[in-house]
Amino acid sequence: MFFSIRHVTRFQYSAPVSESNMEVRMRPRSDGNQRCIRFDLQVNPRSKPNSYKDHNANTVHYFDVPAQHAKLTLVASSVTEVDEPEVLPAALPMSAWDEVDEVNEGAEHWEMQNPSLFAKPTPLLLALAKELNVDRREDPLTILRQLNGDLFKAIEYSQKATRVDSPIDDAIRSRKGVCQDYSHVMIALVRNLGIPCRYVSGYLYPKTKLEERSALGATHAWLEAYLHNHGWIGFDPTNNELCGVRHIRTAVGTDYADVPPTRGVFKGRASSQLSVAVRIHPTDSPTDEEDDFISVAAATNDIQEVEIPTWDALQQQQQQQ
Amino acid sequence: MAFPAPFQNYALGDAYDEMFAAPAAPREQFQALYDRLQELPLAELRRRKHTADQAFLNQGITFTLSGRDEGMERIIPHDLLPRIITGAEWAVIETGLTQRIQALNEFLRDIYTDGHILNDKVVPRDIIFSCKHFRREMRGVQVPKDIYVTVVGTDLIRTPAGEFVVLEDNLRVPSGVSYMLTSRQVMKRAFPELFQTCDVRPIDHYGQALLATLREQAPDNRSDPTVVLLSPGVYNSAYFEHSYLARQMGVQLVEGRDLVVHDNIVHMRTTGGLRRVDVIYRRIDDDFIDPLSFRPDSILGVPGLFNAYRTGNVTLANAIGSGVADDKALYAYVPQIIRYYTGRDPILNQVETFLCSKPKQLQHVMENIGSLVVKAVGESGGYGMLIGPHSSKAEREDFLARIQAEPRNYIAQPTISISTAPCFIGGSGVEPRHVDLRPYILHGEKTTIVPGGLTRVALRKGSLVVNSSQGGGSKDTWVLN
C-alpha cells in the first residue's frame, strides 16, 4: 500500500526574527516494512535544505534563513510504500527472556535499554508497574501485548492534560495524556523489564475520519520493543493495537527529545505560534494525486517565550579542566 | 648533614623530593639554583618575588573560583623558584605522552566509527555509553584527518620512587597554558643569570606551534585557512587565556554571536563584512557549542555549527565528543587501550584505579575509604573529591552515601604522596611543597610537546591538592638540554 503525505508546518512570529536555523525530521524511514519513494521539503522564505542521517539513521533536513522574516512555512510531501508487518506468533517460549538478557549483556542497544530524558523510572512509574503487574510472569511478547492493552485502559486520552515537554509523572498522576505520554510511560515500563525499547514518531492513517487518537493533526507517536529473532516490534498503546500498515514511521529515538519533527533557533525577541496540518492519502500506486486528500485535522500550539539568561551566568557555565 | 640557609626549614619526608636526594645534597640539575639561592640575601629574594607578582597582576592573569563566590578574582599564586627536569627525564615523558595521546586519538576514532575495541570487549560498552561526554551524534561523522584531539593537557605526578605516572588526561578544553608561558617571561626577568648557566630549553614557540597544528587540520581545499579562537566571553574564568593565546597566534578572538552559519559555511562578522572561517580552536564545551544540535538553551554557541562540521567545511579543535576519552572511569582502561592500538606496553604508568560501578571494586572502596582518594568522574578542577587520610568521619560518610547512590559516578585511587619541590614560602625561606606537572601536547600530523609544562603547587603545607581552584599555585618548569 502507498501513502501520499502532505505535512504543512507554519511558524508565525510576534515580531520579525532573523537567522533561523532549523532541523526537520519528516522524511519517512526506509527500513522494516516501509520504503520512502519520494520526499520533498519546501521552505518559505525560500531556502535550500540539506540533509544527513543522524545516529539513529533518521533523515534530518536542515536549513537556515538569514534575512528577517515574520513567518516560516514548511511543506513536506512524501510517498511511502508500506507492507503488512511480519505476523507474530501467539506467544514465545519462556526461554525468550534468556535471549532478552543476552541482548542486554552485549549492550548492542544500550541507549534503548537505559533510562532517557523523558522515559525514566520514577517512584510513580515503579508503582504503576506494580499496579499493572509488569513483570516476567509470562513470555516477553505476551507481557508486551498485555501491557499495551492495560495502558490503553489505565490512561484516558486527553489533549489538554499534558504538554509537549511534560514528564511522565504528570500523565501517570492524572491518568490522562496523549500518544506521546502513552509511549513514554510504556517505554519506561518495557525498559524496566530489560527489553530494549525506542520511541517512534510518524503518521497514523485513520480507519475512519476524525475518530482516532493521535496528536497534532495526524502526526502520531508509538514505540518499538526489540526481541531477538523478531527485531523491532511496533506497539501503539494509544490505540491498543500492534502497529500495522497504517503506521508510517518517520523517526526513531530514545524518546521524544531525539525526534521532534522540527527543532530550531532564531535571533530576535519574539514568541512563536505553531500550526500544523497533515493530509494522508492512500493509493495503490506511487503517484501523488492531490485532489482527494483527506484533511485529518489541524491544530495549533502556543510556544511560550523563553526568558534569555544573562551572559555572565552562561559564560560561567563553562567548566575549566 | 643539615640544610644551610635559606633551606633551614627544609624537611624531607616520604615523598620524592625534586631538588634533594638527601639533606643538603641537591640533585645535579638543581646545583646551580642551590648555589645561587645561598648567595642571594633574603631581602633580594623578597624583592624579586614582589616584582614577579606585580608582573602577573599587571598582565591581568587572574582566575575566578567557580562554585563559590562567582565575583572573586585572584591572581594565581606564583612561586618564585623553578622546577627543574633533566633532558633524560623529559625524553621519557615526551615519548610516553606521545604514545598515550596517539592511542587515545585512535580510540576516539574507533568508538565513533567501527567500534572494534568494543566488539573485542577490551573496553565495555556501558562505560562508553554511560559517559556524559560521549556524543552519540558523532557516530559516523568524518573528522578532518582523523584528528580528534589537538590540544591536550595531561597531569603527571611523581611517585615516591621518582617515577612520573599519569594521573589524568584533559582532552576537552584544557586550560593553564597561558600561565606556563607568562610564568616563563616573568622568570627570565627574575633569574636572568640562572637562565644563562642552566641551558633551559625554550617554550616561547608554543603559540606558533599551536597555530601551525590548527592550520594543518583545515578542510582540504582551503590553502590559506582562517583560524579563530572561540571563547564563551569575558565573564569566563579563563578569558585571559583565550585573549592571550589569540594574541600569541595572531588570530581573531570570537564569541558565538560573532559567528554565523549559512549553507554549511561558517562565517565571522567583521567590519568588512562576512569572512569565512576554516578552523575553530574552541574553548567552549560540547554542550554549549551549538544550540541546534546540543543544549538548546545555550546562547554561547553557534546555531548550525555542528552541521557545517559534519559536512567537513570547518574544523573544530578539539573534536566534539573527545571528552569520553578523559572520563575518570575510562582512565582505568587506558593501559589496555594503549596495548590494543600500539601492541606495546605503556611507556608511562598510571595510578591504580577502582571503579565503583564494579561490585567487587566498590566493596574494596567502601572498606578502605580512609586510605583512598575518591573522585567524581564528571568533575574537574579538584571539585567533588575526597582525600581519605585527610578527611573527617562525616565527610567519609557523606561520600559513602553518594557513592552508593551513584556508583558509576565515582572512582577511587590509592593516596599517593606526590613529589615535593622547593618553594619560597612566606618571604622567609625555602620549603618543600607537593607538585604535579601538566605538559601541553599538540597533536596533529605529528605530535609536539613544548619542553616543560605547568607545574602546579599545593602551597598549603602538607596539602596534596594542586588545583588552582583549590588554592594551588604554579611555578615555572625548566627542562634542561
Q: What key phrases describe this protein's structure?
A:
heterodimer, A: about 325 residues, alpha+beta, Immunoglobulin-like, C8orf32 fold, 5-stranded antiparallel β-sheet, 7 helices, globular, B: about 475 residues, Rossmann fold, Dna Ligase, domain 1, 5-stranded mixed β-sheet, 4-stranded parallel β-sheet, 14 helices, 26 strands
Tally of distinct domains of chain A: 2
Distance between the termini of chain A: 56 Å
Oligomer: heterodimer
Query: Would you identify the regions of chain B where 5 or more consecutive residues have pLDDT less than 50?
Result: none
Shape of chain B: globular
* Number of helices, where a helix is a run of at least 4 consecutive DSSP H or I residues of chain A: 7
Q: Mind describing the biggest β-sheet of chain B? A: 5 strands, mixed
- CATH topological fold name of the domain at 89-154 and 201-342 in chain B: Rossmann fold
Approximately how much helix is present in the residues of chain B? Answer: 25-40%
Total helices of chain B: the number is: 14
Average pLDDT, all residues of chain B = 92
What would you say the CATH architecture of the largest domain in chain A is?
Roll
List the helices and strands of chain A in order.
EEEEEHHHHEHEHEEEEEEEEH
Q: CATH class of the largest domain in chain A, please?
A: Alpha Beta
Biggest interface: chains and residue counts?
A-B, 35 and 53 residues
